[in-house]
């Protein structure tokens, strides 16, 4: 995980670094508040000075940044939800869509659809095989047993206008799909005719 990608997420969140330290596995969790990621094997950086140095923030820009330690209740909720990841909580990564000038990722579970900004996943997309879990309003991302991030679901981006767009796109894509199937069938028929001559 690259610090520069973490910095970008926090920069978009009004230049706020949200963090907590998990002493059980010596991990420093850093993020925007809506998405938080562990840095394993890190010392407990609990001062603004240390965190801003980690992010390589220029002295002249440091007064524009805020560091906010997450309350113990949120920390324990995150740790507890990570421990609750089971196959029954797994969700699938699906399509993306654009709304309000931002790109969002859709996940589907057995009971509902989950949505989060696609930018949250760019921090951890270096890993090829990822597993996603949904617990409460959190999307937990893992590579094997290693937790890579906890992302909060986004609400309020699905509007009637977006649904209308998706419906009209569905009809147009269905036409394209049908046309391509017809062209493949014609091509196969020509090949079979050529082979029999």
Characterization of the model:
The chain has five helices and ten strands. With 197 residues, it is α+β, with helices and mostly antiparallel strands. A ten-stranded mixed β-sheet has the order 4-1-2-3-10-9-8-5-6-7, with helices on both faces. β9 and β10 form a beta hairpin. The longest helix has 37 residues. It is elongated, with a radius of gyration of 22 Å. The termini are far apart. 22% of the residues are buried. The model has no long low-confidence stretch (mean pLDDT 89).
Helical coverage, percent range: 25-40%
Structural class: alpha+beta
Gyration radius (Cα, Å) is 22 Å
Provide the β-strand percentage band: 25-35%
Task: Note the gap between the termini.
Answer: 60 Å
Could you list the spans in which at least 5 consecutive residues all have pLDDT below 50? Answer: none
Q: N-to-C SSE series?
A: HEEEHEHEEEHEEEH
Main sheet strand line-up: 4-1-2-3-10-9-8-5-6-7
How would you describe the shape? elongated
Number of strands: 10
Total number of helical segments?
5
Q: What summary fits the major beta sheet? A: 10 strands, mixed
Brief digest:
With 197 residues, the chain is α+β, with helices and mostly antiparallel strands.
Label this structure with key terms.
197 residues; alpha+beta; 10-stranded mixed β-sheet; 5 helices
Annotate the secondary structure layout:
Layout: H1 3-12, E1 16-22, E2 27-31, E3 35-40, H2 48-54, E4 66-69, H3 72-83, E5 90-99, E6 102-108, E7 113-117, H4 119-122, E8 131-135, E9 138-143, E10 146-152, H5 160-196
Parallel strand pairs: 1-4
Antiparallel strand pairs: 1-2, 2-3, 3-10, 5-6, 5-8, 6-7, 8-9, 9-10
């Amino acid at each position: 995980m690259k610090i520069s990608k973490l910095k970008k997420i926090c920069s978009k969140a009004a230049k706020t670094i949200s963090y907590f330290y998990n002493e059980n596995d010596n991990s420093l969790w850093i993020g925007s508040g809506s998405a938080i990621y562990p840095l394993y094997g890190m010392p407990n950086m609990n001062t603004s000075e240390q965190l801003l140095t980690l992010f390589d923030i220029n002295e002249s820009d440091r007064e524009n940044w805020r560091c906010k330690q997450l309350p113990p209740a949120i920390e324990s909720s995150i740790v507890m939800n990570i421990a609750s990841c089971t196959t029954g909580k797994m969700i699938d990564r699906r399509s993306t869509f654009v709304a309000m000038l931002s790109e969002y990722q859709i996940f589907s579970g057995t009971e509902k659809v989950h949505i989060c900004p696609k930018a949250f996943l760019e921090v951890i997309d270096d890993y090829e095989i990822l597993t996603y879990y949904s617990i409460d309003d959190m999307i937990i991302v893992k590579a094997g047993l290693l937790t890579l991030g906890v992302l909060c679901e986004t609400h309020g981006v699905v509007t009637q206008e977006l649904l209308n767009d998706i419906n009209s796109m569905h009809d147009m894509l269905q036409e394209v799909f049908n046309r391509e199937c017809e062209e493949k069938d014609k091509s196969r028929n020509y090949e079979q005719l050529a082979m029999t001559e």
